[in-house]
Write a structure and sequence with these properties.
Elements: E1 2-15, E2 18-31, E3 35-39, H1 46-53, E4 61-66, E5 69-70, H2 76-86, E6 87-91, H3 102-107, H4 117-130, H5 147-159, E7 165-169, H6 177-192, E8 196-200, H7 204-208, E9 212-217, E10 220-226
Parallel strand pairs: 3-8, 3-9, 6-7, 7-8
Antiparallel strand pairs: 1-2, 1-4, 4-5, 9-10
Helix pairs in contact: 4-5, 5-6
Bound molecules: adenosine-5'-diphosphate and magnesium ion.
Magnesium ion (MG) binds next to helix 1.
Length: 227
């Protein structure tokens, strides 16, 4: 089954009298269990593509299918449920609450469900264990952690709802090579567990870790590599 299907997706941003075609007739199909890299120069449309795939943004035209169903943009709450329960997001800048600890950050996505606090904590700890976050650092404020540890926390937060699809926008962009490798090892493990993973990257080494690569240029798919 295809997890994400884009059919002739277009998106234009307009600022004052300037308009930019961020995505220009993008066709893309990502199968369940794939690990896909999206590459391309800065400004080529990578983030726009991922945001649309994750229901954080909406295309101007074209069709988006997620988990086998065409997304109906009139159904806000159903779409929010898909976004919260089935998709995990990881960002380059971690997007964590810096003044809170790891457990608090990882529990956040669960506040929207009505499960007891004790269970939330248990799920957060399980997710943090899964990504190899050291138990000795659980109480530390996130702002005092290294970049690699912050990204572990962010991946644990993306995992805590047990998503089918993980969307990572330059997850290694702010990390040194050792931490980048650690992050990719975690993402590959999550993929082996059966999750579909899409990673945006500038780094050829990171792209090389993925089974397939799709390259964008000026909002168009220009190249695809299979391994
Ligand atoms: N919210 C926005 N408002 C205006 N222009 C935007 C916005 N988001 C993206 N763009 C423009 O769309 C193009 C694609 O951006 P983006 O998807 O962020 O590219 P990438 O992630 O590959 O660097 C760029 O020219 C960018 O400036
Ligand atoms: Mg980007």
């Amino acid at each position: 089954m295809a997890v994400v299907v884009m059919k002739k997706i277009c998106k234009t941003f307009t600022l004052k009298d300037m308009s930019v075609k961020a995505l220009d007739n993008v066709d893309l199909s990502v199968e369940e269990g794939e690990m896909l890299a999206i590459t391309g120069a800065s400004g080529s449309g990578k983030t726009t593509l991922l945001n649309i795939a994750g229901l954080l943004d909406r295309q101007d035209s074209g069709e988006l299918e997620l988990f086998g169903k065409t997304v109906d943009f009139s159904k806000d709450s159903a779409n929010a449920r898909i976004r919260n329960k089935r998709i995990g997001f990881v960002f380059q800048d971690y997007s964590l609450m810096a003044g809170e600890n790891a457990v608090f950050n990882v529990m956040l996505p669960l506040y929207f469900s009505k499960i007891p606090l004790r269970k939330m904590k248990k799920a957060a700890l399980a997710a943090l264990d899964k990504v190899g976050f050291p138990r000795s650092h659980l109480k530390n404020k996130v702002k005092f952690l290294s970049g690699g540890q912050k990204q572990r926390v962010a991946i644990a937060r993306a995992l805590v709802n047990d998503p089918d699809l993980i969307l990572a926008d330059e997850p290694t962009g702010a990390l040194d090579s050792e931490s980048s490798k650690m992050v990719m090892d975690i993402l590959k493990q999550l993929n082996r567990d059966g999750r579909t993973v899409i990673v945006i990257t500038h780094d050829p080494l990171v792209a090389g870790e993925c089974a397939r690569e799709v390259r964008l240029s000026d909002g168009r798919v220009v190249q695809s590599r299979d391994v």
